[in-house]
């Protein structure tokens, strides 16, 4: 496997000059570590030992929680690299399973490795028949993210005793099972909501064709997979595959650091992804565009967003890391045009609304000063809508793709020498020690 390839860039940490921190008369020399590219980090692991203090960084905006060789983002330059390859090159030239292999094993597969990987994913795409029964426990109007989260968590009951996360082969098997089975669960969550029969995976299809077929085939009509649409689906999966230490990935790493079952770890990642500040934003963008309705309403909406007391945000805008354009948003804009032209769709007025909203926002000092630009979710919802995917499934598709990133990061975390449980500290602001009082002594 390419995992052991010695031609890979040497990412061994080089030691750089140290940083000196002083508190009063006490001083600590802290090592500064350099990665392959990107800012150095101050290694504060000895901070408490040397100075008796902890660092304070709510939201972890300035904290490197791990070292990783999977994904690199330069938020100021709008750069996203997977194992060194720019996202636009991958999105335009590779298939989703190729990118999955790259993220998992560090190198692009050769033809034989790719073929074996694809066949293996196909073998694992089937679900245990007992899993079907779980769906019946959900209300028909349950949100598909709830079904996905619950059912992926339930997979841990099917794959538990045989799993040994200290064994590389067992980790690899879990990773492949997850990448292969999550799309099937996702498509079945949709079928369940429609009251339609579940469609089993079909080995004749590519990964994305198979997903579309599981979503849209019916026993009474033959579903013809349109290659342009399958390619668009594949590209959307590639663009969402990994994004370094975001909230859901950090969740997977944290849960995984306890030694938990990998299927339970991914269920935790799905829960974290669901929030509107993270993967739920694609669904929220469409709701926002529907609420704005027409161009004339944009200025009033922008004023509402700028009024902090309104609590309204421009969904699909802003990013914790990108303070320039999000490179994924650009590729999605182009993909949208390909899909619309292939389907000969009447131009979606929502798209025009989105373009106009973006134009007004990027020229507005409020957004310029805060470096808020469209992110991946601003356009992904419009393409998914053109593909006939219902809004409630948007975040589910994000989860299908991100499963690849989660399992890659989970594996890397487990394989890190000296890996230990994630356990942040806190700044305690509650009551100091006090004695218990009986009811008779309380006001
Ligand atoms: N609309 C209006 N104001 C915003 C927005 C927005 N979308 N995003 C940030 N701001 C303002 C925020 O009010 C704050 O202003 P001030 O300095 O006056 O208090 C400033 O910009 C910094 O915001 P922040 O909340 O400190 O930034 P953050 O890095 O913590 O949040 C974010 C990042 C993505 C949660 C946020 O930009 C946001 O809520 N965006 C909308 C939701 C969204 O599109 N999420 C998808 C992210 S990309 C996909 C993914 O990774 O899941």
From TrEMBL:
Pathway the protein contributes to: Carbohydrate metabolism; tricarboxylic acid cycle; isocitrate from oxaloacetate: step 1/2
Example GO BP: tricarboxylic acid cycle
Catalytic activity annotation: oxaloacetate + acetyl-CoA + H2O = citrate + CoA + H(+)
Keywords: Transferase, Tricarboxylic acid cycle
Pfam families the UniProt entry points to: Citrate_synt (PF00285)
Family annotation (InterPro entries): Citrate_synth-like_lrg_a-sub (IPR016142), Citrate_synth-like_sm_a-sub (IPR016143), Citrate_synthase (IPR002020), Citrate_synthase_AS (IPR019810), Citrate_synthase_bac-typ (IPR024176), Citrate_synthase_sf (IPR036969), Citrate_synthase_typ-I (IPR010953)
GO cellular component entries: cytoplasm
Keyword set includes Transferase: yes
GO terms of molecular function: citrate synthase activity
Superkingdom: Bacteria
CDD domains: EcCS_like
PANTHER family in alphabetical order: CITRATE SYNTHASE
Family statement: Belongs to the citrate synthase family.
UniProt-recorded name of the protein: Citrate synthase
Lineage: Bacteria, Pseudomonadati, Pseudomonadota, Alphaproteobacteria, Acetobacterales
Gene: gltA
């Amino acid at each position: 496997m390419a995992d052991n390839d010695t031609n890979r860039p040497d990412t061994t940490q080089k030691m750089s000059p140290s940083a000196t921190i002083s508190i009063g008369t006490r001083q600590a020399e802290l090592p500064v570590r350099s990665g392959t590219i990107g800012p150095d980090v101050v290694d504060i692991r000895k901070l408490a030992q040397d100075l008796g203090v902890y660092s304070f960084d709510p939201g972890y905006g300035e904290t490197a929680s791990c070292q990783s060789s999977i994904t690199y983002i330069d938020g100021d330059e709008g750069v996203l690299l997977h194992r060194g390859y720019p996202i636009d090159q991958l999105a335009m030239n590779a298939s989703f399973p190729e990118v999955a292999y790259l993220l998992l094993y560090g190198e692009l597969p050769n033809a034989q490795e790719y073929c074996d990987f694809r066949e293996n994913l196909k073998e694992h795409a089937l679900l245990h028949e007992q899993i079907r029964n779980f769906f019946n426990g959900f209300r028909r109007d349950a949100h598909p993210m709830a079904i996905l989260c619950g059912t992926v968590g339930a997979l841990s009951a099917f794959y538990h005793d045989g799993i040994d996360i200290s064994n590389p082969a067992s980790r690899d098997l879990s990773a492949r099972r997850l990448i292969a089975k999550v799309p099937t669960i996702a498509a079945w969550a949709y079928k369940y909501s429609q009251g339609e029969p579940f469609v089993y995976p079909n080995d004749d299809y590519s990964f994305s064709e198979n997903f579309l077929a599981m979503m849209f085939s019916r026993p009474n009509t033959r579903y013809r997979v349109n290659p342009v649409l399958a390619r668009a689906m594949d590209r959307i999966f590639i663009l969402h595959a990994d994004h370094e230490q975001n909230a859901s990935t950090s969740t997977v790493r944290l849960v995984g650091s306890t030694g938990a079952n990998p299927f339970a770890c991914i269920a935790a990642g799905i829960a974290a992804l669901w929030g509107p500040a993270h993967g739920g934003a694609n669904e929220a963008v469409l709701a926002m565009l529907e609420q704005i309705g027409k161009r004339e309403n944009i200025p009033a909406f922008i004023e509402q967003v700028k009024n902090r007391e309104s609590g309204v945000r421009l969904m699909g805008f802003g990013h914790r890391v990108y303070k320039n354009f999000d490179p994924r948003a650009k590729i999605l804009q182009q993909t949208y045009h390909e899909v619309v032209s292939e389907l000969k769709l009447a131009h979606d007025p929502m798209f025009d609304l989105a373009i106009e909203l973006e134009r007004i926002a990027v020229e507005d000092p409020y957004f310029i000063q805060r470096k808020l630009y469209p992110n991946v979710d601003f356009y992904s919802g419009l393409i998914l809508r053109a593909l006939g995917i219902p809004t409630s499934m948007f975040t589910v598709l994000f989860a299908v793709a991100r499963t690849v990133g989660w399992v890659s990061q989970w594996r890397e975390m487990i394989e890190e020498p000296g890996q230990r449980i994630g356990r942040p500290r806190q700044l305690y602001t509650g009551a100091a020690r006090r004695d218990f009082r009986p009811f008779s002594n309380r006001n």
